[in-house]
Amino acid sequence: MMKKNVNRRNFIQTASLAAAGFYVMPFFASCKSDTSTRHPETVNKMNKDFIADLDLQLTALPSQTNIYPDSSTKTYSYRASIIKGSEDNLQNIEGSYLGPVIRVKKGDKVRVRYENQIPAESIVHWHGLHVSHENDGHPEHVISEGETYYYEFEVMNRAGTYWFHPHPHKHTGEQVYKGLAGLFIVSDKEEEKLNLPQGEYDIPVVIQDRTFNDNKQLQYLGDGQMDRMQGFLGEQILINGKIDNTLNLGANGKYRLRLLNGSNSRAYKLAWDNGEAITVLGVDGGLLKAPKRMSYLMLGPAQRVDVWLDLSQQSENSRIKLVHLPIPLDMMGGGMMNGGMMGNSSSNHLPYDTQFDILEINVGAFAENKDAQLPGELSSFNTLAATDAINKDNPRTFTFAMGGMMEWTINGRTYNGTEVAEEETVKLDTTEIWRINNGNQFSSDPDDDSGMMGGGMHGNGGMMGGQGGMGNMMQMPHPVHIHQLQFNILNRDADKVDDKLWEATKDGFINEGWQDSVYLLPGMQMDLIMRFEDYKGLFLYHCHNLEHEDMGMMRNFKIV
Ligand code: C2O
Ligand code: CU
Ligand code: CU
Predict the structure, then answer these.
(1) What InterPro entries does UniProt report for this protein, alphabetically (predicted)?
(2) Is there a domain that residue 13 lies in?
(3) Distance CA 500, CA 185 (A)
């Protein structure tokens, strides 16, 4: 349909089974050939009656990647091959540690034979997908090196940009950091009718930050507990797993950029450097009803946004950049904790409060899809109404905050295996409002000394821009994510958000459409409405700052 433009370098190559000769070499070359004779143990059973449309072998393994063009970096990678399906189902990102882009249609039956070949326990979570407990990648389902876990599910989600990553308790941050992540893109009939840009005009843009040592090897957290408390922040931005952040696109072309913030803890305030508005087509759970133009965009960890890029005003050989604009967040995390009471951090991470480049687009030869049109309407759907919620008068409230033992908690609790509290139990086939808030759970009264952090910290109380008090001092943004479903946002209350921070971010939030992750600023409160359908069982909700999650800012909710 769309021909390859040979004048252009593309991030993406369509994969074929034989094209598995990536730039990424298996770290232990002999591993792969061994597995066929070694018969890795399987943990759960394959269901022979499940007739898959797409049957994939997905292996997590140590790898070496040229993140920098001239050096080889030790990484982990997901590698996939098709057992049943078509070449269109898998797209490798050339030269990247990232897993392949898995492309499916709504209604497809998918089997994934996940083989763990990293020297640690792991399990794959399908972020954003509506699947059963057994297929969700719960930390209790981790498998050891050499074992295989079978996923079998039907794709029930709307067209949208979903993703997959490990979910072992305490080690998600490290494993994602080393490279384990990939996109899972769903299309459906409604979307197909729109004739949005496809093929080489539909481009994944995975944004991550990383820190390298002198040997160009990945460095995760520094020694201090504070790096962990704050969440990992890197010194370099990687796009699709590469230091080289340039995309070469055709003048006049129309593109769909699928942005994923795959960073462990960093959020971005994104804008075009030429001052043009960002045109948003979709969010986590698929297309919006209509395109939305925004002067800038806040993208928290785990969030996705599909952006329309029209290069028809760009001349050949020009360039535009997607940049991060300054936000006053350093005081919340790094500055406050590191510079304040907790001693200094060793890391030279990119400060939030500065502008830096995310993506550079070189406009090359003229593109072939110049006639592609931005539709005025994208999708029609009914959102959930507050009046449908069984708890509309008394929303279930979850507070994301620092707990008394200097740990990140949800309603004062941390993750404990399959434990689920009464207030975390919901009923199948009901609609509920969840009120999530980012606050201090013991005391917002600066004179109240009852918290276990003790009086010694009071001296620093003024650091938070006048809002003062011990409570605010220990606040950080929490990117809150709920498994298994997509919700609508009913309300975003920023009354208690620091004025400067709100001023700098308020036009970047999207409250429309279906979402599974939100960026909850310190002091912010949001009402989310969701419906529990199809599957009973245990699912997670947690902070998607992966270091917070690993420290236990994660809980189960149970659908009964
Ligand atoms: Cu993307 Cu439970 O996470
Ligand atoms: Cu998830
Ligand atoms: Cu958090």
Answers:
(1) Cu-oxidase-like_N, Cu-oxidase_2nd, Cu-oxidase_C, Cu-oxidase_fam, Cu_oxidase_CS, Cu_oxidase_Cu_BS, Cupredoxin
(2) no
(3) 37
In this structure, the answer to whether residues 177 and 247 fall within a common structural domain is: no
Q: Is the CB of 304 under 6 A from ligand 1?
A: no
* CA-closest candidate to residue 159, choices 191, 195, 203, 196: 191
Separation of CA 169 and ligand 1 centre (Å): 11
Residues that place a CB less than 5 A from ion ligand 2: 127, 483
Cα–Cα dist 301/299, whole Å: 7
Average pLDDT over residues 422-446: 83
Average pLDDT, the chain: 87
91 and 215, same domain (yes or no): no
Which atom of ligand 1 lies at the shortest distance from residue 483's CA? 2
**For residue 419, what are its two tokens?**
């434990």
Measured from the Cα of 167, ligand 1's closest atom is 2
Checking if the pLDDT of 527 tops 90, the result is yes
Task: Tell whether ligand 1 has an atom less than 6 A from the beta carbon of residue 294.
Answer: no
138: Cβ below 6 Å to ligand 1? no
Return the ligand 1 atom nearest residue 163 CA: 1
DSSP type of residue 314: P
Same domain, 184 and 216: no
pLDDT tens across 152-180, in order?
A: 999 999 999 999 999 999 999 999 999 99
Hey, how many other C-beta atoms are within 10 angstroms of the C-beta on 479? 27
Measured from the CA of 137, which atom of ligand 1 is nearest?
2
We report the CATH number of the domain holding residue 325 as 2.60.40.420
pLDDT tens figures, 201-236: 999 999 999 999 999 999 999 767 788 899 999 999
- The number of distinct structural domains making up the chain is 3
Regarding the beta carbon of 555 and ligand 1, being less than 6 Å apart is answered: no
- Assess whether the C-beta atom of 167 lies below 6 angstroms from ligand 1: yes
Verify that 173 and 216 share a domain, yes or no.
Answer: no
Residue 343 lies in a domain: no
Q: Which atom of ligand 1 is nearest to the CA of 554?
A: 2
pTM over 0.85, yes/no = yes
In short, whether 260's Cβ falls inside 6 Å of ligand 1 is no
Which residue has its alpha carbon closest to ligand 1 atom 1?
127
Please indicate, yes or no, if residue 456 is contained in any of the structural domains: no
Quick check: 392 and 430 in contact, CB under 8 A? no
Please tell me whether residues 162 and 207 are part of one structural domain. Answer: no
Overall residue count recorded for the chain in this entry:
560
The answer to whether residue 462 sits within a structural domain is no
Q: How far apart are CA 109 and CA 210, in angstroms?
A: 35
